[in-house]
Amino acid sequence: MDQGSISPHVLIFPFPIQGNINSMLKLAELLCLADIQVTFLNCHYPHRRLLSYSNIQARFSRYPGFRFETISDGLPMEHPRTAEQFLDIVDGVKTTTAPLFMEMMISWCRSASDTRSPLTCIIADGLMSFAIDVANEVGLPVIIFRPISACSFWAYFSLPQLIEAGEVPFRGGDMDRLVASVPGMEGFLRRRHLPSSGRVNDVAYPGLQHLMKIFRQAQRAHSLVINTFDDLEGPVLSQIHDHYPRTYAIGPLHAHLKSKLASETSTSQSSNSFRKEDKSCIPWLDRQPPKSVIYVSFGSLAIITKDELGEFWHGLVNSGNRFLWVIRPDALVGKDEERQTPAELLEGTKDRGYVVGWAPQEEVLKHPAVGGFLTHGGWNSTLESIVEGLPMICWPYFADQQINSRFVSHVWKLGMDMKDSCDRVTVEKMRPRESRGDVGERGGEGKSFKGTPDVQGSKMLLRRPLPRTVEMSDIFELIG
Predict the structure, then answer these.
(1) CATH superfamily label, 8-149+205-270+467-479
(2) Are strands 293-297 and 370-375 parallel, antiparallel or unpaired?
(3) What is the pTM of this model?
(4) Phi, psi angle pair for 9, to nearest 5°
(5) Cα separation, 208 vs 202, whole angstroms
(6) d(CA 120, CA 138)
(7) Tens digit of each residue's pLDDT (9 = 90 or more) over 77-96
(8) Does residue 258 come out as left (phi exceeding 0), alpha (psi in the -120 to 50 range) or beta?
(9) Residue 424 in 3-state DSSP?
(10) Of residues 184, 232, 217, the one with CA closest to residue 404
(11) What angle do CA 39, 8, 117 make, to 5 degrees?
């Protein structure tokens, strides 16, 4: 059948962790609002969590062309799925999900269906790069979606050059040694800011080899889309374009979706949480003075020791700041009795603090009482903070978070990087901003990232109108 006569129907296939699924659900909703049919293929575990704790079923029921499908990730439901077990998720997807996906696509694309129109395109998470071979097998174009920053994408892409230069792998040693093999980042990128998979003894480490493989495979995709925007990452996007000519920056997706829903007078809220959100924190924020609260959250995967928890607690309490602190029930490591948030910590926060197990983060960050964000530096959190004009203090844990934190502190000048340290003195010195700042202009032309001007802490890159959406329109055309 002539592809031009088929109504556009895209399959969206995320890697089964909350941050990635969150971004791709926002992309799915934007496509639905453009009257494009969407099938969202989710793994069983995250889908069950979404049905339990988010409003996705009600929210997407308004789109007649949308449907969910599920697939196994090969792990038992009781698997903890925190950052410590991240490679378990990777292995499960590789050994179980990949062959099941091939079978599913062959069946869908070669068998007629009265309830499902033919697929015209696959948008796959970059960590699901096996989808490229599957798409080729069934004759569909595939777009690779990366829910990470362009700067982290570029560092990952540069891993072969880093290995060739002997700069990766490394284990310990001088973590502040400059690295020279990530083009455009010479002079300010240090060992500690490289992807955490480089902190190993052996180049044969499976996590390192897997990353290099998926970035090689991604070059075979029809297009690459990244949840970022040119005003923020223009120079590094220019580097990426040299290797992926059809690269589209379509972010920040959460802000585009919010704007689109507002223009349609929709009351829909985009909750894509795997956990029950404790909304009691919102009335508490309502009672606080403007810009007086530090919001503290280390994301959906990071884990923390009891000693680290104590350092943050002492720092927050001694700072004199008001704070809203998210402590996930599964965030503490140790024996069972050590995994409970200490009662004395909870008691000690009552004067100026509020602790929840999970929070409605986008709602919290836009609340007028919030004046700063102590974060792990995950990309969704970073974008959400930038959009709201909030300064950040970054305590990166793993993956892309180290380089995000470096760019927040050194390039974009939107906060500070705690690096690998966790000490109460640094936390104690935090101060919420008096105002959510003015516009910071992007600097640095060409392909150097070092010329970006100081935009003074929380000076915002998005107070002006949202980044142009022409590249999102390009994606609509690719899908159609």
Answers:
(1) Glycogen Phosphorylase B; (3.40.50.2000)
(2) parallel
(3) 0.89
(4) -145, 110
(5) 9
(6) 11
(7) 989 887 778 889 999 999 99
(8) alpha
(9) helix
(10) 232
(11) 60
Contact 455, 461 (CB under 8 A): yes
Query: How many other CB atoms are found less than 10 A from the CB of residue 431?
Result: 12
Domains 8-149+205-270+467-479 and 281-428 share a fold: yes
As a residue count, the chain comes to 480
pLDDT tens by residue, 102-153:
999 999 987 767 777 899 999 999 999 999 999 999 999 999 999 999 999 9
Residues forming beta bridges with residue 249, ordered by sequence position: 226
Question: CA end-to-end span of the chain, whole Å?
Answer: 14
Q: CA 474 to CA 459: how far, in whole Å?
A: 30
- 68's tokens: 């969910």
The widest CA-to-CA distance across the chain, in whole angstroms, is: 68
Pick from 429, 403, 431: nearest CA to 417 = 403
Helix, strand, coil shares, percent, the chain, to 5: 40, 15, 45
Q: How far apart are CA 92 and CA 72, in angstroms?
A: 9
DSSP of 184-250: T-TTT-BGGGS-GGG-SS-TT-HHHHHHHHHHHHHTTSSEEEES--HHHHHHHHHHHHTT-SSEEE-
Q: Residue ranges of the domains in the chain? A: 8-149+205-270+467-479, 281-428
Instruction: Give me the residues paired with residue 289 across strands.
Output: none
DSSP 176: T
Q: Outline where DSSP puts E strands in 314-404.
A: 322-326, 353-356, 370-375, 392-394
- For tokens 């499908």, what's the residue? 69
Which superfamily is assigned to 281-428 in CATH?
A: Glycogen Phosphorylase B; (3.40.50.2000)
Cβ contact 238:446 at 8 Å: yes
